[in-house]
Amino acid sequence: MQPARSLQQLSDDIVAIASQIITMPQRLRNREISDFVRGTQLQRDTIVQGLALTQPQVMGLIIEAQSVGTIGPAAAMAVAPTRTEPELWDYDTKTATVEDLTRRRDLLRVRLSVLEYLRSH
């Protein structure tokens, strides 16, 4: 069994994954929204099967995208990559818990795997 991670370790993991996601082209991140989050069931199923994602992982990403406003009407019409909504890696460091940061880290890992899959397909 893996030892419990500290808040600092989890935060460092989140920063590292977020940095990888941020440096990916905006075009690829837009494709993540169009092909996975808002994609047809067939589009999503292809990615899910290719990565062997679980239903909770898929739903977690979709719910997270909805909660940060990345798939709302304003986001669909936005042309500039500037954002005012918080991202998954934005959290209050004073109230963060191990459970919350673990959930965020795990979702970011899945999101990164989806982006890497889309980049190669």
Describe this structure in words.
With 121 residues, the chain is mostly helical. It has one domain (25-120). Helix content is 66%, strand content 0%. It has six helices and no strands. It has helices spanning 7-22, 26-37, 41-51, 55-67, 73-77, 98-120. The longest helix has 23 residues, at 98-120.
Radius of gyration: 15 Å
Shape: globular
Pick out the low-confidence regions.
71-81
- List the helices and strands in order: HHHHHH
| Quaternary structure of the protein | single chain
- Total domains: 1
Features:
66% helix, 6 helices
Summarize the model shown.
This protein is mainly alpha-helical and 121 residues long. Helix content is 66%, strand content 0%.
SSE blueprint:
Layout: H1 7-22, H2 26-37, H3 41-51, H4 55-67, H5 73-77, H6 98-120
Helix pairs in contact: 1-6, 2-6
